[in-house]
TrEMBL record:
Known cofactor(s): a divalent metal cation
Residues covered by the Calcineurin-like phosphoesterase domain: 1-161
Protein name per the record: Phosphoesterase
Record keyword Transit peptide present: no
GO MF annotation terms: hydrolase activity; metal ion binding
Signal peptide: none
Keywords, alphabetical: Hydrolase, Metal-binding
Listed NCBIfam families: PRK09453.1, yfcE
EC number from the UniProt entry: 3.1.4.-
A matching Pfam family: Metallophos_2
Length: 181
């Protein structure tokens, strides 16, 4: 199964539409949203085409294909307009005999990891910086941000297929990748 990962939409209709185009182009089965869907947060600039109401509408149209966790900019009022569960601080999925721990990154991250083993994967957003690496204890993945990338990175999303995680920009270029052995 092919999984599509996005994080840090921050209410950008423009970049959500780009991500949904990429999701369909990639022919992925599910969209994993790693938090910060609607609100831009007080530390961030307004993203391009900031329209949380329309972002919610588009995401709701795909609710059967979404697995989501709460980001630090997501609130209970957001859950009132979102039609899929999105308020958990973390979630697990099992894929190819490994646990994939999904979280936003403001609670669990490389400096405060959950209890994982060598084959497990910690996937989070929050930093807006793409990462694909093996630590001594687990794999660490961050697909970056689709709307507000940092440190001169491009707008990115992630794809997991056949134990290979690729982080791509919207032109289809691979920014980072890792094989989950």
């Amino acid at each position: 199964m092919k999984l599509f990962f996005i994080s840090d939409i921050h209410g950008s209709l423009y970049y959500l539409n780009k991500a949904i185009e990429a999701f369909h182009m990639e022919k992925a089965a599910q969209i994993v949203i790693l938090g910060d869907a609607l609100y831009h947060g007080p530390r961030n600039p307004l993203p391009k085409d900031y329209n949380p109401k329309e972002v919610a509408s588009i995401l709701n149209s795909l609710k059967g294909k979404i697995i989501a966790v709460r980001g630090n900019c997501d609130s209970e009022v957001d859950q009132m307009v979102i039609e899929y569960p999105m308020m958990a601080d973390y979630s697990f999925i099992l894929c190819n005999n490994r646990r994939i721990f999904l979280t936003h990154g403001h609670i669990f991250n490389v400096d405060n990891p959950p209890k994982l083993t060598g084959n497990d994967v910690l996937v989070h957003g929050h930093t807006h910086i793409p990462v694909a690496e093996k630590t001594k204890d687990f794999y660490l993945i961050n697909p970056g941000s689709i709307s507000l990338p940092k440190e001169n990175n491009p707008n990115t999303y992630g794809i997991l297929e056949n134990n290979k995680f690729k982080i791509k920009d919207f032109q289809g270029n691979i920014v980072k990748s890792i094989i989950l052995e």
